[in-house]
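Sequence in, structure out. Go.
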Amino acid sequence: MRTVFPILVLLVSALPLRAEIIWSEQQDFYVDPPIGWIFYEDPTPQHFLIRNSDGSAFLEIFNQSTQGAKADPANNVTEKAKTVLASLGATGEGELFSWSGQQSWLGNLTYKAGPYPVRAILLVTRNQSSYMTALAYCAQKDFDNDLDVLQSALNSLALGEAGRKDIGPLSAYFRETAPSEELERKALTGLPSSFTMTYSKTTDESIQAVMERESRVVAPMVQTRFLNAAWSRFYRQIYRELFSSLLPLSQYWSSLVPKGTVSSSALPQTMMSWVQSFEYSRKGGVTDLSTPWQTLSNQSGDCDSRCLLYLALLEQTGTKGILMVSSKYSHAMAALELSGAGARFPMDKKNWLVAELTDNVNKPAIGMIPQEYSDPNQWLGIDLWGKP
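Output:
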């Protein structure tokens, strides 16, 4: 592995592109970096570089063939990490963990690039027939200030299309290395039949940590022209983090269809009525968002907390949807790929049927919304997975 700053000197003359979701077709990985980060083209397909707008924080990714590697994947990843540390002349410690079906290694490093002290987070994993080495770094003196954006950029990494619905590597590390797995159980009320949900406290803490970090990342964008893009990314990171945690509840809802309790066509409306019955509440703090478990166990939450919960359950039971947010109305709604009458929101060449999950309307049905929210020009539509 080459030292990092000489690489940057070679690349700064390349044409920068404003970063959105980036897909490396040849290596089949995705990155959804913070808004304003810049992607640099590189003629070497094994190398990938993005940085923040002022050039103080970087994410650099290398892929190297595993051909000739030993049989034990854990030892290989550990040995690869040691090789990276030796190449950089770095000191640091890390641990093995599992991410996206791959044995991986995560650690914190310090080293010098020329005369400059550098602090980095290093991820080593396998990606297809390659080792992937991802280095999120900045000057050591800037590390505390840049930690949120470094972690946010690295945690947005995904291996392949299926990996986009897995949690990010930092989240996987946090959940796997937690001191103990404490489970909480709650009998959810108001459902068509009885259901007790079991939820990991570590998972809830992981989602809360991502919500708070991404709130800090988006805050500097509030007074900029990038605000809509920043809000879209904010919700994408949180949706990815919470998505898989709701599978047990979506499986409960799916099980009602073959039993004849709810028809498949009635499932979106039945779920909406249930979520709409929750008490409205805002918890305050760094972020007003409630985690799914906070929303479910208390059966209360604000508009976007309920929308994210509802959209994840719908997607897992077969209905696509998008999030709608409005700064003018300080509100959020869901919109679904469904037929039927009612208010619709145009986005991506589709007219999505709007679902109001908090305000009471005369007929609490999908497509019925309060009149004061009916101007589509006041809403931002968000694809919660985004498009490369």
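Check: The chain has eleven helices and 20 strands. The chain has two domains: 4-173, 183-382.
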